[in-house]
Amino acid sequence: MNILLANKFYYRRGGDCIYMLNLEQLLKKHGHEVAVFAMDYPENQKTPWKKYFPANMNKLMAFTRPFGSKEVKNKFNKLLNDFKPDVVHLNNIHTQLSPIIAELAHKRGIKVIWTLHDYKLLCPRYDCLRDGKNICEKCFNGDKTFCKTYKCIKGSTLASLIGYQEAKKWDMKRLETCTDIFICPSKFIAQKMIQGGFNQKKLVPLCNFIDITKCQRQYFGKGDYYCFIGRLSHEKGVKTLIDAANKLPHKLKIIGGGPLLEELKDIANSNIEFVGFKQWNEIKELVGEARFSVIPSEWYENNPLSVIEAQCLGTPVLGANIGGIPELIENEITGMIFESKNTADLVQKIEAMWKHNFNYALIAQQSQMKYNAENYYNKILEIYKK
Question: How many structural domains is the chain composed of?
């Protein structure tokens, strides 16, 4: 099959990018011809398909790109003409590319598959957070005016107006018409899409996969610490974790950086170590040797790779009871759950995780079987051929 993958960026920037890059390699491994379409961003990986990429966005393009620019249309049509895909598989495309590419493919009778990495089809801000902190579902009923009212995008009247107009143009009916299947990496996001009025028959829950070869470990010895890995920002719940960790004697290692770094350092006790950004070879050791990893999120996480990767390394996960996180954790087998934003419950569960006797080797074995690429390939191929 000829399969065209589309995403805003073409480098390992976030979960959506990692997913598409891994999927590209998986499909090629099985003999498929794969083309890619993305914005021409300086950090992109090298690819022969770069000649089809529309230019990197500037400030002026923010007023045109979200609605389907001439350059995007022309370059995508040229790629469709030259590559002749059987399937166009979309990922995060809003704003920088826009859903115009879904319509262009659909009008030619090409099957359009769209993996939902966030809530952009329901929420103009994409993360269902008002002020970046509080869960909000006011736009789920189709009326996106709340985006303007609350200045949801960057706290800016202009940016929020553009976001509103973008959501209004690419409404549910229009997106459903040009998309054959929406892949939902969690049952949670599938339920939210149904809540927002999308046709359940077009929604296929399918958990993401990872390259399990990078998670192979020879032993499962654990250090005398637990860890957090991720962006240090409000929605990730790191402040709640620091508050809980301050009440306990156990050592916590914080892997990553972000806007709250200095604030968190100011309130953290001496048992909390900030190790900064790390590459995978170091992450593998830090997370792999942790007694457990904590995912204290305070937003609707969809299908966080941090949970999947930790478990494939044989590290159980203490996750917040929010979004798609609980679907990934088997209580007292692969981890535990606590109430999101509840510091007291988190303290209790950290103690429970510390004392619990987990079978680390079994967690790794079962997780690698569950999230391996070959299982995913068989399922995605069925979707492509439907």
Answer: 2
The contacts of residue 344 (CB under 8 Å, 6+ apart) are: none
CATH number of residue 225's parent domain = 3.40.50.2000
CA angle 336, 372, 17 (to 5 degrees): 90
Beta pairing partners, 86: none
- pLDDT tens string 291-317: 999 999 999 999 999 999 999 999 999
230 and 365, same domain (yes or no): yes
Q: How far apart are CA 135 and CA 235, in angstroms?
A: 10
Q: Do 229 and 116 sit in the same domain of this protein?
A: no
pLDDT in tens, 27-72: 999 999 999 999 999 999 999 999 999 999 887 787 888 888 899 9
Q: How many whole angstroms separate alpha carbon 294 and alpha carbon 219?
A: 21
pTM above 0.90, yes or no: yes
What is the reported pLDDT for 228? 98
Alpha helices in the chain (DSSP H): 15-29, 70-83, 100-107, 145-149, 157-169, 172-178, 187-195, 238-245, 261-267, 280-288, 305-312, 343-355, 360-370, 373-385
